[in-house]
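Step 1: inspect the first sequence and its tokens.
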Amino acid sequence: MSQKYKVILTVIGLSLISTFWILWSSFNPVNDKALVKFISVKEILDSNNIERVRIGGIVADSSIIVTPSNRMEVFFNIKEGASILPVRFVGARPDLFKHGAEVIVEGAYSNGSFNADMLQTKCASRYEGDLRDVSSYKLDEINI
């Protein structure tokens, strides 16, 4: 067998192995957290969905309640339009978590409440500058 055919067979073999690996890892995730649907608050309230989902919305005013016995446990409501979803989260809360903050939670809905095991907040606009306006860069404040 000539060197040319060995190279061609090697390329074909590696291509088949790569294709098989991509298909296998796409359709057989390691756990149920790998592929999660993003749905709206209204959709979760209207359905009897018990699978793992991701939901975004705004923390409703005066809805954050931290459990006194377990400071890691927090209850709050997410609102999206007229829909309001009660959420329970146990874990470290992001610094920007507050009333009116935009959040994304991930978990499962059961018994009228969303049990979240992941909580993210959207970055505050005070950290964002207008990139088109060079005067907003404030390069003199950067310590090098």
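Step 2: inspect the second sequence and its tokens, then contrast the two.
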Amino acid sequence: MTHLKPGDKAPKFKTTDEQGNPVSLSDFKGKKLVLFFYPADSTATCTVEACNLRDGYEALRNAGFELLGISPDSAKKHQGFIKKHSLPFPLLMDEALKIIKAYGVWGPKVTFGKAYDGLLRTSFIINGKGVIERVIFPVESKRHTEQILQGCVCF
């Protein structure tokens, strides 16, 4: 689990989205940002999560949120995932795991009894001043939009 908590400054980042457009935390100054980390494009649970966020996208936007997904996948995989599932939000590049590790979401996992290091599905709600307001862990893929909207002070 991440070492970051509500009240901490969100680690700054600079990367590109699936189309090669530059994206940084500072681009969201004055806006509420949901930065959601997920393990891999086109896997069952990640697809459920992404489609839940797609289906709740309008409600999230109406509540004042911007939305960015991030995983270690390539731009090509991100592009295919977005196209196949009509995702309305960008997916960011972090193949070198720099942002993932800065947010503390890389660590020990167990799947089917096998232990390994991997991405821990986690979301951060970051306010317009770059401060973490909430950390959502564990993420419930089937109701992630609801988790984000629960208890939000929306504007």
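Step 3: confirm your contrast with the notes below.
DSSP finds five helices and nine strands in the chain. The helical segments are 44-55, 57-62, 75-85, 98-102, 144-149.
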